[in-house]
């Protein structure tokens, strides 16, 4: 039996223009309020923004069958995406107007299998170091009991938004 899923998203290029006029935190808060379109990836992978504050952003998702790899568990790319989103947005929340970032390096440790019976998972980002040209960030993916399913570390390059 075939399954079907449909979803929609806003124009992500609208947010690019707005990002030049707002601090990272203002931009993310506008996204959470629905004033700025969220990344289409959030809708594609069915993530939700959990919380946004200066230096801490979280994303939440409930694992579903459409996240699966051929082995019947959530694909590592889905887990990597939610961790990368939490890390990147956490860093973004600390950047001033006109400054953005890009990922230089990303490392993920997968600690437990994730499947639809796992329940709701939350990825929370944390900045380890924020310098003038690079930043080091991390995120953990945990369940509602606090068990860790994956952990990631990323190095990001800080850039002027031109």
Which architecture would the CATH scheme give at its second level? Roll
Question: Any idea what the CATH superfamily is called?
Answer: Hotdog Thioesterase
**Uncertain stretches of 5 or more adjacent residues:** none
Radius of gyration: 16 Å
Total DSSP helices: 4
Polypeptide structure, described:
This protein has 162 residues and is α+β, with helices and mostly antiparallel strands. It has a single domain (12-160), classed as Thiol Ester Dehydrase, Chain A (Roll). The protein has four helices and six strands. The chain has a six-stranded antiparallel sheet with strand order 1-2-4-5-6-3, with helices on one face. A hairpin with a 2-residue loop joins strand 1 and strand 2 (56-61). It is globular and about 50 Å long. The mean pLDDT is 95.
Topology:
Blueprint: H1 12-19, H2 24-32, H3 40-45, E1 48-53, E2 56-61, H4 76-92, E3 99-110, E4 121-130, E5 134-143, E6 148-160
Antiparallel strand pairs: 1-2, 2-4, 3-6, 4-5, 5-6
Looking at this protein, list some descriptive labels.
single chain, 162 residues, alpha+beta, Thiol Ester Dehydrase, Chain A, 6-stranded antiparallel β-sheet, 6 strands
Q: In a nutshell, what does this entry contain?
A:
The protein is α+β, with helices and mostly antiparallel strands and 162 residues long. The protein is built from four helices and six strands.
